[in-house]
Amino acid sequence: SDPTKDLPLPKINESWIDALEQSIDRLHQDLPVLKTFILPGGNERIALAHVCRTVSRRAERRVVAFSNNGSVDPLIVRYLNRLSDYFFSLARFLAFKDGIDEVKWNPK
Predict the structure, then answer these.
(1) Closest alpha carbon to 95 in 38, 55, 54
(2) Any bridge partners for residue 38, and if so which?
(3) Reported confidence tier of residue 1, pLDDT bands at 50, 70, 90
(4) CB neighbours (10 Å) of residue 24?
(5) Is the per-residue pLDDT at 5 higher than 80?
(6) What is the arithmetic mean of pLDDT over 62-69?
(7) How many helices (H) and strands (E) does the chain have?
């Protein structure tokens, strides 16, 4: 039996989204402007940030799909969207701080 199954989930509020947006802005302060797509990579911590981005983006897509069949608080979708953007920004920030060049996507 799962002892956490009856625990109430926290209600996402606007301040959580604001906090993520402020964190994203801080991460972007020293970063070069992104002019092309980049590929995930770098070192282990950069790769882990990209994995977190991918997982949060997948969760966002699933919540959006679920919202088509039921009622979902729109703040959940907004929060997951900002969370995935945070992890993308974190990956870029870590690459910048570690002196690792981002791998630019080259459409052939």
Answers:
(1) 38
(2) 104
(3) low
(4) 18
(5) no
(6) 89
(7) 3, 2
